[in-house]
Specification:
Arp2/3 complex 21 kDa subunit ARPC3, 2 domains, mainly alpha, Hypothetical protein af1432
Length: 506
């Protein structure tokens, strides 16, 4: 098996190491220099504002075009455009101040912008059929599923303003524009609430039904407040309910297209990756059972810790499932998959480090080939950051015995530190799981002390692996406590089984 593994790796890891110590001191083996997966381009505040401003300008242009075409007075047009711009400014301020991670993601900003423009273009077309035939819920559902619920709630502001303006332009009826704006705003918020429980395909349709009922009731109440007779707007209510349901169905149908186009990891897509039918997970179970077991434990630790600090627990869980998938290149290189013999006893520390270090970049490359979401690949490609493989570095130093300098870079992972909460949580969960497992104890005091030691080491200046992550001290403390609680739960006491022979059970 080991020979096979070595052969397989030769294809992946170029032959570099021999016993020539001098050579190693001058030039690092190529496998160590494998590049980590490229990061997403981060937007600075100026670019985010520019994308939003362009969206607002395009939406306003459509509004002006439609209103001037339907013979509206210039004052009405100016008022409508200003109202729409105010809504966009509010949305922009919210993103910049409260959701910086969304505002700094080019994919997410372009996706939000595309959804807003599509709906702004569709609204006058559909509403010319009936005032209740309004599509904004489509964008709200899409943004809630693929970006964030909070962003979707605020994104409904410019959309409901536009719908109200178009309702006014189509009907000129006193309370209709207000009723439709309120109906759309309420239905959007209710849809997001309903979706926050669960984000599967069926729950998206259920959320759109709840949104339809809420929208219809709000619309009817505002019309009642305006003294309108039920008969005059009952048809609008039917259209409004129907359009909400249609938006739910369209969201389910169009989501895979937008997910692929913008490479955004929605909850539905992440949930699919947790299925044991995934070929990579199946391979882990069959070829590297020890790694599979380790990954499941890391997922439990990471999931609970992410929930404790308000990070994306599902993203951490999925990343944990696949974080060591690169070990499939050579399962027996890793302690958790070894039975009896340890192949590293026969390898020199340089070669051992080369083979182990490769699993980080190999895993990211395998996930990229399997078309995994970029957020998952980025976390997996950094799960050891640029840390030093201390065990083999120390072995190499002992082997050198002070006769020559050991090049530390040969024992360092060729990547960068995690820069998201999710990535940092996965790194800590991975290190803590491995460290606690190596202790072979269930004593919680010893386990707590080990967790504290590992996290302190990752934070302090010797390792500094948490320095690029946005985790605060308070959050790191909560993560530490969460790990202790999870280990405590995992190490539950077992009832000792009686000897069946003794009690003579048939
Ligand atoms: Fe790893
Ligand atoms: Fe791991």
């Amino acid at each position: 098996m080991e020979n096979d593994c070595l052969k397989k790796n030769d294809a992946v890891l170029p032959e570099t190491a021999d016993d020539d110590v001098e050579k190693r001191k001058k030039k690092p083996p190529k496998a160590h220099r494998k590049k980590h997966i490229k990061d997403e381009k981060k937007l600075n505040a100026g670019w985010s504002i520019a994308i939003l401003a362009l969206t607002a300008v395009l939406s306003s242009t459509g509004l002006v075009f439609f209103m001037s075409g339907s013979g509206q007075h210039v004052v009405s047009i100016v008022g409508a455009v200003m109202a729409l711009l105010m809504a966009f400014v509010t949305f922009g301020c919210y993103l910049m101040l409260r959701h910086r991670e969304v505002a700094s993601s080019m994919r997410k900003m372009l996706f939000i912008s595309a959804m807003l423009i599509i709906i702004e273009v569709l609204t006058p077309v559909t509403m010319s059929v009936n005032i209740g035939f309004a599509p904004p819920l489509l964008a709200v559902l899409m943004i809630a599923i693929m970006v964030s619920e909070e962003t979707a709630m605020v994104a409904c502001l410019p959309l409901s303003v536009t719908a109200g303006v178009y309702a006014n332009a189509v009907y000129w009826a006193g309370t209709d524009p207000l009723a439709i704006s309120v109906g759309i705003a309420v239905s959007s918020v209710m849809a997001v609430f309903a979706l926050s429980m669960r984000k599967t395909r069926s729950s998206t349709v259920i959320a759109s039904s709840i949104a339809g009922i809420a929208g219809v009731l709000s619309y009817a109440f505002v019309m009642m407040a305006g003294g309108e007779i039920f008969n005059t707007y009952v048809l609008n209510l039917v259209w409004l309910m129907g359009s909400c349901l249609l938006c739910g169905i369209l969201t389910v149908g169009l989501m895979p297209i937008f997910e692929a186009a913008f490479d955004i990891a929605s909850e539905a897509r992440l949930n699919e990756l947790l299925n044991n039918d995934n070929p990579l997970l199946k391979r882990l179970i069959n070829e590297a059972p020890g790694t599979y077991h380790h990954s499941m434990l890391v997922a439990s630790l990471g999931d609970a810790a992410a929930q404790a600090v308000g990070a994306n627990a599902l993203l951490v869980r999925v990343s944990a499932f696949y974080h060591d998938v690169g070990k499939l290149r050579c399962p027996s290189c890793f302690k958790e998959n070894q039975k009896g013999t340890n192949m590293h006893d026969e390898l020199d520390p340089y070669e051992s480090a080369k083979r182990i270090i490769a699993h980080q970049a190999d895993g990211a490359a395998m996930l990229e080939k399997a078309k995994f979401p970029r957020d998952v690949i980025r976390i997996v490609g950094r799960h050891h950051g640029d840390s030093v493989m201390v065990y083999f570095y120390d072995k190499a130093k002992k082997q050198a015995g002070g006769e020559y300098e050991v090049d530390e870079s040969l024992f360092r992972y060729p990547s960068v530190k995690p820069n998201t909460k999710e990535g940092a949580i996965l790194m800590l969960a991975d290190c803590c799981e491995a460290a606690v497992r190596s202790m072979n104890t269930t004593d919680m005091t010893e386990i707590s002390n080990k967790i504290k030691e590992v996290i302190t080491h990752k934070w302090d200046k010797r390792d500094s692996m948490l320095w690029d992550s946005p985790l605060t001290f308070a959050e790191i403390k909560r993560i530490e406590k969460s790990f202790c609680d999870t280990f405590d739960a995992l190490n539950h006491e077992r009832v000792e089984y009686p000897d069946l022979e003794e009690i003579n059970v048939r």
